[in-house]
Each structure stands twice: as structure tokens, then as C-alpha cells.
Amino acid sequence: MPLNRIIWTETDEAPALAAYSLLPIIRAFTKGTGIEIETGDISLAGRILANFPEDLTNAQRIPDHLARLGELTQNPEANIIKLPNISASVPQLKAAIAELQSQGYKLPDYPENPITPLEKEIRERYAKVLGSAVNPVLRQGNSDRRAPLSVKNFARKHPHKLSAWSPDCKAHVAHMESGDFYGNEKSVCMEKDAELKIELVSGGKATLLKTVNVLKDEIVDGTFISVKALRKFYSDQMEEAGKSGLLLSVHLKATMMKVSDPILFGHAVSVFFEAVFRKHAETFASLGVNPNMGMGDLYKKMESLTAEKRAEIEADINAVYAGRPALAMVDPAAGMTNLHVPSDIIIDASMPAVVRDGGKMWNADGRLQETKALIPDRCYATVYKEIMEDCRRNGAFDPAAMGSVPNVGLMAQEAEEYGSHQTTFEIPSDGTVRVTDATGMILIEQAVETGDIWRMSRVKDLPVQDWVKLAVRRAKATGVPAVFWLDRERAHDVRVIAKVERYLKDFDTSGLTILILSPTEALRYTVGRIRRGEDTISVTGNVLRDYLTDLFPILELGTSARMLSIVPLLAGGGLFETGAGGSAPKHVQQFQKEGHLRWDSFGEFCALAASLEHLGHTFGNGRALLLAETLDRAIEKLLDNNRSPGRKVGEIDNRGSHYYLALYWAQELAAQDRDAVLRKRFAEAARWLEENEERINAELLGAEREPVDMGGYYHPDRGKTEAAMRPSRTLNRIITMLLGQDPKRPSSGPENENRIG
After folding, report:
1. What is the pLDDT of residues 370-403, one digit of tens each?
2. Which residue among 354, 555, 673, 707 is least enclosed by CB atoms within 10 Å?
3. Does the pTM of the predicted model rise above 0.70?
4. Domain count, the chain
């Protein structure tokens, strides 16, 4: 592996578009410093194509970049910048397949109900692409996530608006009180390496569900949610929402919990529209309607019906709307409700918005209205419940004065608290699920009923050790209290607490405040501190890592995309993630419609700075360190001068912010006195960029207002997309000259860039 190499991941949607504009700038600035920039395609389309090479022509085949990146994480020299990718739901997967097929890729259709061995094999291969498929491969280390100081200072100087909370606000979180994953959980800690069998015993017959290999000291959990209890919970809460006049919303994570949560979502749909699903059961069966896919999928499949039959069903749906509580809206203008698409209600994005907006969500009239938020499982519903109660008592937060909540998250080596698609099952018949070892010893045994969702979760010991070490290190470095969010009433957490208490003894923690509190207690403690302007490190398992790194940044900064996310890899390398915010499909839709891309690449800027710093320290590359330091100052100048993308056409967009980053970075390099060669080179570049500011802005803004043909959504045409994302001929010439190329020669597109492998 070459030294001084940064791998930039090609992903999806808005971050992928931004890379067409940003990567040439990065290459121009790193030229002559010994740093190589390479790319690896881990986009949804790329992952699909890599899994079906035998169905493609030689020209269409691409390497499995994700697998190769996974191998690189085991190398101490790894330096990977990971952009947000689509954690695909089934509807997104099917849409991507259809698009690729329309482009001439002879991929098999996604088998919704596989029967033959071939269909089952195809579905299994597509399953590798679903959900957070990328994360377990790349995240071979725990998470260190925090707001850069420049970002926090800017947020205090220019606080975003938070809606007021009224003391008599009726908005709240509702969760199950029994029968959920939390209440049914059992947990063991392995005494030795073992091969475990997960079986369903029903009618005197044992059916093997899955075989898994586990390690000594690994925590293994088994739990299930009762579908009977779940449906009663939904029914009761829907009735209560109707009586109280609250909007009704459901908040799940069908992308991460890619087997369990679509089913939970589907039950919400079929309970709400129970009369419709009962009356039209036969028709829906013939259409292949699956409530797990949401009402949007139902409407799409209804298009094949006669006008008369479609009108009948739509009338019945409207009758349900009239008699049920009003649903929160994802897009009021488009008529998209909270029950339309499972991937539109992702809890870590939707719940912070509820808190930010005073306990309200959008209603059908496009106005904010108080909301009853349904989060069935108690494992983490209580966190959101408590923060809403706090806001009701104490009012909205003040971003100008509130403290920060950095996170140390346990996620290395597929650390789970939620199960994965491989060990999560919808139970087909009444019986008993049991987990046994090779000797036949029963480790976990639970009685289940048809339709219940059973899951196994696992956490290896080495990641826990590293997690504790990282928490202590951050507490020492900052002097800030570190709080482990662990519940002594939960079976999984009891096992983790025992390990944490054991491994804390390996460190000198004198003078440090390190606490172990339940999620509710930890939330209360943390919120009390941030209201006083005090920082608090949250030390959490994988799910809360995911949830809290959106919740607090959205309240503090207005967005989670401006967080610095560092993953110190267990093997010694570094993974630098570019902030949250998903892959921003709405941004792409706006770009296609009116040529304005409002995606903020701030996370990419911060990740690049951290990557350069890591590279500089690891390999003694002084120029890499200089690039990192000057980039930090350029980022701060970008914020101070308000050069981030605007939301509307006619304002600076993503491409314009890249220009200003290049300008400020060149200015900082021209002003430094540690490297005369770089000073001379970038003094000239800064002059070019300064003198042409008006012309470059005119060219960039002139490209807005017109529709953009990308040649595809999931798999855009590279030539068309590069042309759209690099519309300033003047800026392109300057970048080309910095690259040391003939300015008259067209720049190479991403397809000609260095790639891993």
C-alpha cells in the first residue's frame, strides 16, 4: 500500500454530486506534497454491480471496492474518507435496479417472494446491499464524534432558530410498557469460542434459522417483540391521538434495523388502515401489496387496477383518514404522510426535528401541529421522551449558550444492540426459539408466537476494551465528564456494564468524572449541563451513537452534517466520516429541477483536515500537516464570511462554497512562512482566484435556474454530471493550472481518476 494515500469513497446522491466539484480542488492542492488521492465506489449502484459480475459485460463490471476497502481497514496505513451513502430500503434497492436495467445492465429483478433456489440466491445477494451494509465493513474501530471548535464558536456567534416550547404542550413520546425488545431480552457472556445454532422448535420439529460463530467473552443477546402487544399498542395510541387532537407519527429506523423495523412500520400501516386491508385483502394479495413498504407502494401498485376499482379503494382509504387521527406529513404538498415510505421516518433525523420545532410536525395544511410520536420499543424511546419532557419544563434550548455533547460510540467489529438482517427473524409459527452450543446446551430460550420478531445481537470483547480506552482518553484530553449510557435494568447493558467496570480499572482515572447512568438518567444529567453551557461526553453503544450524533448536533448547530467524525481503526489506521445528514435526496431533486445544490460539504472539509493531520503525524509528512492547519483556518474563514450554500436558487450553492474554500485555503497557504515552495505556488493561485471572483461567481450562479439532466439518479452519467457540477470555465482553468496540466486540455473526469485496486 502506498504511503501518504487518502482513499475518498464515491457514494450517493448529494455528497456524490459534490465530489465532482470538490475532488479536483483537493487534487490540485495536494499535488507536489507526496499525497495520493484515490477513490473507491461504494455507492448503492456500485454495490449492486459488484455483486452480479456474471450478468454484466466486461466493460460494465466493476471491482468490489467495498470488500477491498474492508481489507484496507486491517492495514495500519489505511486513511479513508467515508462520505454518506444510501442505507438502502427495499424500495430504494428496487428503484436502483430498475434504473441500472434501463441503462443496459442485465441485472435480475429483485424477487419479493423467492420460491426457487435461484430466486433465493438472488435475493440473498441483493440482501448484502440493503441497509447499513457499508458500515460493518469499514467501521473497524470505535467512533469519536464531536463538533470542531470553529463550528461550535460559529454556532454561538450565529445561533440558529429553535421553536418555543409551551409548558402546556401536549406533544409527547409513547412507547410500549411490555412485550417489547427491552422487556423480553436475555443475555449471556461466552466462556469460550463456540458455534451457536438458532432454532425454532414448533410442533415437535426443530428448524435451523441460523448458525453463528462467536468468540470467548463475546456478549450474545436474544429478544423478541410480541406482535400482538405491538398491534394493541398502535391501536390504543391511535385512539388516544384522536381524542387528544394530536398529530400521529411513527419513528423507526428501517435502514439500520433492516428486517425488524420495516415489519414494525408495516404493522403501523395495517393497523391504521385496518378496515381497508381487511376489505381488500384478496385484491392486495393479487397485487403483491406489502404494508411494510408503506402506502406509497400501495398507491403505485394500484395503478394496474381498473379506474373503478382504484376509485373504490381510494374512497375507502379517504374514509379511514376521516375517522382516524391526522397523520404527520413528510411532504404536505405531495400528500406524503408519515406512513408512506419506511425510509422517510428515520428516527435519528425525524425526532430531533420534533424537539427543534417545539414538539410539532407538519400537518396536511402545511402548518406545524403538536404531535404524539410513537416509538414502540423502550430500549431508547425513553431518551426522546425525557428530552421532550425537559423542553416542556424548561423551554427550548439556546444554541448561543448551550454546551456540546461529543460522543464516543461502540461500533467496532459489527458491535450491535439491535440485531442484523442475518440474525433477525419474523417467526412463521407458534413455538420456541432457542440458542444452543455444540454440546446442545441451551443458552437462550424464548416462547414466541406467529409474526413475532426475534433477534440476536452480539458485541465482541476487544471493541469494548478499545471503547473504554477511547472514553478515558477523551475525558483526560478535555477534562469533561464522560457518561456511559447503560441501563442496569436491561439484560444486554448489564453484561456491558460488567466489562466497563472491569476495564476502567486498567486506567488511571483520578481527577476524572466517569459515570454509568441509564439512558434516561444520562439524558437528564447531560441536558442539565448543556443548559448551563457545560460540555458532556456521551459514551454509548451503537444505536445511541447513531441517534445522539444527530440529536444533539441538530439542537446545537442546526445540522449534524458539521460534526467531525473520527474512527481510530483497531489496526492503527484512520477512518474519517463526513458528518451525518444522510445522502440528502431532497437536495438532488432540487438540483435536477432548478440547478441549485444546497448540500453543504462542510463535513467533507473537516474530514479532509483530520485525514491530512493523521497522515502527517503517521508518516512524518510536514506538508500534509501544513495543509491540514491551513485548511482549518480556511474553514473558519468560510464560516465567518458566510460562504456556505444557501437554500434557494440565486444564492451561492455547493459549487460556490467549494470555490471560496479554494480561495481561502490558497490565501492561508500563501500567508504561511514554513514552506517557501508552497507559499510561492499558492500566492499565484490566490491571486488568480481573487482577481476572478466576480467572473467565477457569475459563471456558477449562471448555471442555476435550469433543469439538470444527470443521466440517472442512482447511477448518473459521469460526463453529464461533471459538466453540471463544474460549470465555471474560469475556475476549471485555474484548477487545471494548479494540477500542472495544459489549461486548454479538458480535465479528466472521475472515471479517469486513480481508484483502489
Report:
1. 999 999 999 999 999 999 999 999 999 999 999 9
2. 673
3. yes
4. 1
